[in-house]
Amino acid sequence: MNDQHKAHASIELIRRYARADAIAGEVLWSLESHLESCPSCRARLAKEVPGQAPPTAALVDRTWEALAPSLTTGPPVPRRGRLARLAGWTSPVMLPWVVGAALVAVLAVAVDSFFAVPGGRPLVLLLAPVVPVLGIAAVWTKSLDPAYELVAATPRAGLYLLLRRTVAVLAVVMPVLVVAGLTIGTSSVVWLLPCLACTAVTLALGSVIRLERAAVVVVTLWSLGVLAPGLLTSQLPVAVAPVAVPVWGAVFAVAAAVLILRARSFARV
Predict the structure, then answer these.
(1) CA 169 to centroid of chain Cα atoms
(2) Which residue ranges does UniProt annotate as crossing the membrane (predicted)?
(3) How distant, in Å, are the alpha carbons of 53, 112, 186 from that of 124?
(4) CA distances in angstroms from 121 to 82, 129, 256, listed in the order given
C-alpha cells in the first residue's frame, strides 16, 4: 500500500496485479479485498490493464461486446435477502454443531433442576466455558465442510471469515448460557471470561493443528482438569472460582496475540 495514502493501493502494486506478476499471498488477499470496496482503485486498475496486459484487455473487450446485449436486456438483479447476508456469517455445516452446543446447556439446566449434582455445584457452571467450543469446531474445518476449499479461495477467507463465524456461534450460544445460569441462580460473571479464553485458545491452537482437533484438545483438558474434579470432589474447581478471573484474562490476551500472529495460517487451502 502507498505510504502517503494508505487508503489506496500503490500504482506499482496495481500494475503488477494487472500483469499477473507473482505477489505474496497476504498482499494479494489485501489488494483484492480492497478492490472490492474501492471504486477509485478499480478505475486505476482498468486504466492500467490496456498498457500492462494488452491480451487481457482485448479479451475483456471481446467478452463485453458479446455479453453487453444480454446484460442490458436481462432481469434486474434481486436484492440480497436475509439468508444471503446470513451466509456471510455462517455455513450449513455449523448449524447442527451450534444447535448441539446450545442443547448441552439446556440439558445441564435440566440436570441441575431435577438431579442433585455432587457437592451442590451447578453443572452449567462447570460446562459453560467449553460449550461454545463445540460450535467453534465446525466454523472453519476441511474435514466437515465440503465447500471448504471453495470458500478458502475467496479474498475474504481466513481469519476475517473465521472471526465472523465465531461471533455467530457466540451470538447463539452465549444467550442460552446466560439464561441457563439465571434459571439456576448462577451468575455469568464467573464463567464468561473462561468461556472467551477457551474460545480464543481453541482458535489459536487451531492455527497449528486444525480447528476441530484443537476443540477436542481443549474440551478434553477441561473435562479432565475441571469437569471431572468438580463432579467427583466436594470442592469448587479453582478454574471457575472468582479468584481465577484475572488468570483467564491473561490467557485470553495471550491466545488472542497468538491468533493474530498466526492469522495467515487460516488463509491456506
Answers:
(1) 9
(2) 86-111, 123-141, 162-184, 190-209, 214-232, 238-261
(3) 62, 8, 8
(4) 41, 15, 30
Length of the chain counted residue by residue: 269
DSSP assignments along 30-66, one per residue: HHHHHHHH-HHHHHHHHHHHHHH-HHHHHHHHHHHHH
Which of 92, 196, 94, 173 is CA-nearest to residue 139? 94
Q: What share of the chain is helix, strand, coil (3-state, %, to 5)?
A: 75, 0, 25
E strand spans, 71-229: none
Rounded-to-integer distance, Cα 179 and Cα 247, Å: 25
φ/ψ bin of 120: left (φ > 0), alpha (ψ from -120 to 50), beta (otherwise): left
Widest pairwise Cα distance in the chain: 78
Contact 195, 129 (CB under 8 A): yes
Cα gap 97→104, rounded to integer Å: 11
C-alpha torsion sign, points 200, 215, 163, 266: positive
Along the 269 residues of the chain, how does pLDDT read in single tens digits? 443 345 688 888 888 888 888 888 778 888 888 888 888 888 888 888 887 778 877 887 788 777 777 666 656 655 655 555 555 566 666 677 777 777 777 777 777 666 655 555 677 788 888 888 888 877 766 666 666 666 666 666 677 778 888 888 888 888 888 887 777 777 777 788 888 999 999 999 988 888 888 889 999 999 998 888 888 877 778 888 888 889 999 999 999 999 888 877 776 55
φ, ψ at 119 (rounded to 5°): 80, -5
Which residue has cell 470458500?
151
**DSSP code, position 224:** I
